[in-house]
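In response to the reviewer comment on reproducibility (Comment 2.3), we provide here a single inverse folding case reported in full, input and output, so that an independent group could reproduce the run without further information from us. The structure tokens appear first.
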């Protein structure tokens, strides 16, 4: 690896530390919550890999323990992830030229 690439990687890594720490503590909280609900840590790994919205992960624990139907969970997931559509609207002007 050349010196410029090492410098860029080092800079990028330092910039991502605050976000990484946030995800680390949220992941620990999710794992503890899932374990408290009686599920194995492997479920936490699977859910973290498959579920896109972090807030949906926490809702999913409640759904799993409460016996919510698959249809209700799917609709709730649609509404929770629907916020990304509105987030994306703010970038329409920026990416309009593409």
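Designed residues, in position order:
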């Amino acid at each position: 690896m050349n010196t410029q690439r090492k410098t860029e990687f080092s800079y990028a890594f330092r910039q991502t530390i605050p976000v990484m720490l946030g995800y680390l503590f949220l992941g620990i909280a999710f794992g503890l919550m899932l374990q408290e609900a009686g599920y194995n840590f492997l479920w936490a790994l699977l859910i973290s890999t498959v579920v896109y919205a972090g807030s949906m992960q926490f809702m999913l624990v409640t759904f799993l323990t409460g016996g919510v139907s698959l249809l209700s969970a799917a609709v709730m997931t649609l509404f929770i992830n629907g916020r990304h559509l509105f987030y994306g609207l703010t970038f329409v002007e920026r990416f309009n030229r593409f």
